[in-house]
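Dear support,

I submitted the protein below through the web form. The confirmation email said the job was done, but the results page showed an empty box. After a refresh the structure appeared. I'm attaching both so you can tell me whether what I see now is the final result or a partial one.
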Amino acid sequence: MRLQVVYFKGPILPGAHSIERFLVEEELRWILDQEKRSRKKCAARLLDYEKRTLVPINYVILEVIFSQLFHLPDAPVRPIFYGSLLIELCKTKSMPQVIAQAAELFYQRIDTMQVACIDRLIDWFSYHMSNFEYRWSWSDWCDCVELDRLAPRHMFVREVVDRCMRFSYHQKLTEILPPEFGKMIPEKPVICYDLNDGILILQLAENFIFFLNFQ
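What the results page shows now:
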């Protein structure tokens, strides 16, 4: 029996137990499985799905993708596939807004998510941001700053910032993120070149000469 995951509620989608919705989601999962080796082909087939007029297709596509990404204990394919697929889907005009709605819903409901799913959400969102110049309404998430460090929202945003730092660099993020996020931004890394130490260079040279003479 397959567990049905519902992220979007309201009149925009058929009911969770609607047979039409169930059949559409099953066929979309089949497309994901068939085209898991090519994000471009997969995105094209999802968007050109022949029964797309039966449901708000963008919302259903995202529900299916995220249900696969958050599948426990393991996603059906490597999580990076779903991240690259979502980037490909963002080439359409309507999909970015739907993905933004999904990200906001995940943030609001993160207290109810499994830790493994939160980790995958962090990896996906930071990767997604790195492909779109980190453009996001960060100020909408300032409410997490004063929460306990172990609070799910605080931990999520802190880890996202840390991942984004790895994708980018310190100055860029400090310019993009609101001032309230200052506590969450890691300290600016300091690069130390050992070879700049003249004494160390001398020691290395002496050791090298010693080994040459020894041979």
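Response: this is the final, complete result; the empty box was a page-load delay. The domain at 110-215 is CATH 1.25.40.180 (Serine Threonine Protein Phosphatase 5, Tetratricopeptide repeat).
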